[in-house]
């Protein structure tokens, strides 16, 4: 349950801790079982080279670049409508900076970000636009966690 | 048939007598050295034998695992994931560098910043530094106790026989012996200190009191089969000082007190503990608090200061962590005892978990269950290091001083030095820490606005 996650101190001090915890729980449920837990953590498996050539026709593996980006997109997209609106961006920004930045400054940061990313002019960032903005970022390395053997 | 009856009772009698004699001999054999503080070295021999047996068992398990092609479960002490100790700023700079390739000295918000928080959060879910300190340490190899058997399957008949033998020895031979010793020790403590309490104050009383205390603690030490190695005994705490140590279990008190003469600090309990406490205070001045007084920090500090300033009084024994930690790390020291301004004598205690894990998981086991578990493990092996005394420097405050002492203890004992509060075992973390993180991040985004407004 959510309380169990919140007992981890280092997670509780993470500004986006609540959003991350939310990502584990599927729509409307309050408990996550081991399978669901593993599915979410599987997004963070490092990508191996030999997997790319394996299976082009089958379903995409959970830890592909696209799925990793999707995970991050979902952290921003609060109402799960596949778009990051200005309000959602503002809310997430507010979570990250706390009370240290005024509303107008935050608003202007949000506006600027949307302006740079938005290509179809709907003042919201869709998943495709999100991917485009981040295409140079080394997602595979940054969103992967290696286990020690 | 009639001839069997007298023969029967004779055998029973003989058996009874021999067992009693055996037990008494053992008791005497153990208590007499305890009184004088000498040791026959039997426990060390016992420990060496056990070590050899464990090594053989480990080899056997590894061999068996290879034969059957089972992956061997090896718990990792340092964590199961590869973490990079970089700071928030470095990580975000790297993210932006790879992403936009723009000038880095104009800090601003980027969508990719979220990756840092996301990854850090998931890393802590997988393996964090704090919650694993509140449960018993995992051993690298099995020590023939079923309670530490995590993932080992049946390997060989010899191993199982050895384990069975171990159970027999521990429960049927060692346990009754240890309980008898503990009983003797505690009753001697209570009666001895009460008797000494009737003497008039003076050198004689102090001398007797010291020896009664030491003797009883030594008996208790043998009751647990604790094999303790003391290092640097020249640094032992002296009168008018405060002794601080890391806290793993209530047994710490017995271990330290059997080598030195301390004044204890603590809450008055009811029941058996209360009887012991009241008896002890008759012989020498300990500092016991009523439950209501504990909450009043100033009162506590005042009483401690009074005690410390009287040079004839004994050094106080305090555990500043406030709760039991599982002996792999040292958590935040509460600053109360460091504000008093007396000389601090740090002591590091490290248990060897192979022979018996001494950590008291108070949310899992009560006191009696815990003591029974202690008495049915092989032995309690620990090392005690007395560190050179430290005093508070003029330019540091109590918190910095506490951290300095904590690092010294952690370094000596080979423990991880953590800044987290041991109270997190039961409570949630304060929001202040979250706000710190937020502040740090906002500096990264806002710094640019200050620059821009200037230009």
From TrEMBL, chain A:
<dbReference type="InterPro" id="IPR002048">
    <property type="entry name" value="EF_hand_dom"/>
</dbReference>
<feature type="domain" description="EF-hand">
    <location>
        <begin position="105"/>
        <end position="140"/>
    </location>
</feature>
<dbReference type="InterPro" id="IPR051875">
    <property type="entry name" value="Calcineurin_B_homologous"/>
</dbReference>
<keyword id="KW-0479">Metal-binding</keyword>
<keyword id="KW-0963">Cytoplasm</keyword>
<keyword id="KW-0519">Myristate</keyword>
<comment type="similarity">
    <text>Belongs to the calcineurin regulatory subunit family. CHP subfamily.</text>
</comment>
<dbReference type="InterPro" id="IPR018247">
    <property type="entry name" value="EF_Hand_1_Ca_BS"/>
</dbReference>
<dbReference type="Pfam" id="PF13499">
    <property type="entry name" value="EF-hand_7"/>
</dbReference>
<dbReference type="GO" id="GO:0005737">
    <property type="term" value="C:cytoplasm"/>
</dbReference>
<keyword id="KW-0813">Transport</keyword>
<feature type="domain" description="EF-hand">
    <location>
        <begin position="64"/>
        <end position="99"/>
    </location>
</feature>
<keyword id="KW-0597">Phosphoprotein</keyword>
<keyword id="KW-0472">Membrane</keyword>
<protein>
    <submittedName>
        <fullName>CHP1 protein</fullName>
    </submittedName>
</protein>
<dbReference type="GO" id="GO:0005509">
    <property type="term" value="F:calcium ion binding"/>
</dbReference>
<keyword id="KW-0106">Calcium</keyword>
<dbReference type="GO" id="GO:0005886">
    <property type="term" value="C:plasma membrane"/>
</dbReference>
<keyword id="KW-0449">Lipoprotein</keyword>
<dbReference type="InterPro" id="IPR011992">
    <property type="entry name" value="EF-hand-dom_pair"/>
</dbReference>
<keyword id="KW-0653">Protein transport</keyword>
<keyword id="KW-0539">Nucleus</keyword>
Automatic annotation (TrEMBL), chain B:
<keyword id="KW-1133">Transmembrane helix</keyword>
<feature type="transmembrane region" description="Helical">
    <location>
        <begin position="12"/>
        <end position="42"/>
    </location>
</feature>
<dbReference type="Pfam" id="PF01553">
    <property type="entry name" value="Acyltransferase"/>
</dbReference>
<comment type="pathway">
    <text>Phospholipid metabolism.</text>
</comment>
<feature type="transmembrane region" description="Helical">
    <location>
        <begin position="155"/>
        <end position="173"/>
    </location>
</feature>
<dbReference type="GO" id="GO:0019432">
    <property type="term" value="P:triglyceride biosynthetic process"/>
</dbReference>
<dbReference type="InterPro" id="IPR045252">
    <property type="entry name" value="LPCAT1-like"/>
</dbReference>
<keyword id="KW-0443">Lipid metabolism</keyword>
<feature type="domain" description="Phospholipid/glycerol acyltransferase">
    <location>
        <begin position="241"/>
        <end position="352"/>
    </location>
</feature>
<keyword id="KW-0472">Membrane</keyword>
<dbReference type="GO" id="GO:0008654">
    <property type="term" value="P:phospholipid biosynthetic process"/>
</dbReference>
<comment type="pathway">
    <text>Lipid metabolism.</text>
</comment>
<dbReference type="GO" id="GO:0004366">
    <property type="term" value="F:glycerol-3-phosphate O-acyltransferase activity"/>
</dbReference>
<keyword id="KW-0444">Lipid biosynthesis</keyword>
<keyword id="KW-0808">Transferase</keyword>
<keyword id="KW-0012">Acyltransferase</keyword>
<dbReference type="GO" id="GO:0005783">
    <property type="term" value="C:endoplasmic reticulum"/>
</dbReference>
<feature type="transmembrane region" description="Helical">
    <location>
        <begin position="179"/>
        <end position="200"/>
    </location>
</feature>
<protein>
    <submittedName>
        <fullName>GPAT4 acyltransferase</fullName>
    </submittedName>
</protein>
<dbReference type="GO" id="GO:0016020">
    <property type="term" value="C:membrane"/>
</dbReference>
<keyword id="KW-0594">Phospholipid biosynthesis</keyword>
<comment type="similarity">
    <text>Belongs to the 1-acyl-sn-glycerol-3-phosphate acyltransferase family.</text>
</comment>
């Amino acid at each position: 349950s959510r309380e169990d996650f919140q007992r981890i101190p280092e997670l509780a001090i993470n500004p986006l801790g609540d959003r991350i915890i939310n990502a584990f729980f599927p729509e409307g449920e309050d408990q996550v079982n081991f399978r669901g837990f593993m599915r979410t953590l599987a997004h963070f498996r490092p990508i191996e080279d030999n997997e790319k050539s394996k299976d082009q026709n089958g379903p995409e593996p959970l830890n592909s670049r696209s799925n990793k980006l999707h995970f991050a997109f979902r952290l921003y997209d609060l109402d799960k409508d596949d778009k990051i609106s200005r309000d959602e961006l503002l809310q997430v920004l507010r979570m990250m900076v706390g009370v240290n930045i005024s509303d107008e400054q935050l608003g202007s940061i949000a506006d600027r970000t949307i302006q740079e990313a938005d290509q179809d002019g709907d003042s919201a960032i869709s998943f495709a636009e999100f991917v485009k903005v981040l295409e140079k970022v080394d997602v595979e390395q940054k969103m992967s966690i290696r286990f020690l053997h | 048939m009639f001839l069997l009856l007298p023969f029967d009772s004779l055998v029973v009698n003989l058996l009874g007598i021999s067992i009693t004699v055996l037990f008494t001999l053992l008791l005497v054999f153990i208590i007499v050295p305890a009184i004088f503080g000498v040791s026959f070295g039997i426990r060390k021999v016992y420990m060496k034998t056990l070590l050899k047996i464990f090594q053989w068992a480990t080899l056997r398990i590894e061999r068996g695992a290879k034969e059957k092609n089972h992956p061997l479960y090896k718990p990792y002490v340092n964590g199961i994931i590869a973490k990079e100790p970089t700071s928030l700023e470095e990580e975000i700079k790297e993210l932006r560098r790879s992403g936009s390739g723009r000038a880095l000295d104009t800090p601003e918000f980027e969508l990719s910043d979220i990756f840092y928080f996301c990854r850090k959060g998931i890393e802590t879910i997988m393996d964090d530094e704090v919650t694993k300190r509140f449960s018993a340490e995992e051993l690298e190899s099995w020590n023939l106790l079923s309670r530490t058997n995590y993932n080992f399957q049946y390997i060989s008949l010899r191993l199982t026989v050895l384990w069975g033998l171990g159970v027999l020895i521990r429960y049927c031979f060692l346990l009754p012996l240890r309980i008898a010793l503990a009983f003797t020790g505690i009753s001697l403590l209570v009666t001895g200190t009460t008797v000494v309490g009737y003497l008039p104050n003076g050198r004689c009383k102090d001398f007797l009191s010291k020896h009664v205390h030491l003797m009883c603690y030594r008996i208790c030490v043998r009751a647990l089969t604790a094999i303790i190695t003391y290092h640097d005994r020249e640094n032992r705490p002296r009168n008018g000082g405060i002794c601080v140590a890391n806290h793993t279990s209530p047994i710490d008190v017995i271990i330290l007190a059997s080598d030195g003469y301390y004044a204890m600090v603590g809450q008055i309990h009811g029941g058996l503990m209360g009887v012991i406490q009241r008896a002890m205070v008759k012989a020498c001045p300990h500092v016991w608090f009523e439950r209501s007084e504990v909450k009043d920090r100033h009162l506590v500090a005042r009483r401690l200061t009074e005690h410390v300033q009287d040079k004839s009084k004994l050094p106080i024994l305090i555990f500043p962590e406030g709760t039991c930690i599982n002996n792999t790390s040292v958590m935040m020291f509460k600053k109360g005892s460091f504000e008093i301004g007396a000389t601090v004598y740090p002591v590091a205690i490290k248990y060897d978990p192979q022979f018996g894990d001494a950590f008291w998981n108070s949310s899992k086991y009560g006191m009696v269950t815990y003591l029974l578990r202690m008495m049915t493990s092989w032995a309690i092996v620990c090392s005690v290091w007395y560190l050179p005394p430290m005093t508070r420097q003029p330019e540091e405050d109590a918190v910095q001083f506490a951290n300095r002492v904590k690092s010294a203890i952690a370094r000596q004992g080979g423990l991880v030095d953590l800044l987290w509060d041991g109270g997190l075992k039961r409570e949630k973390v304060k929001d202040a820490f979250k706000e710190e993180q937020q502040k740090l991040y906002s500096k990264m985004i806002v710094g640019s606005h200050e620059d821009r407004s200037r230009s």
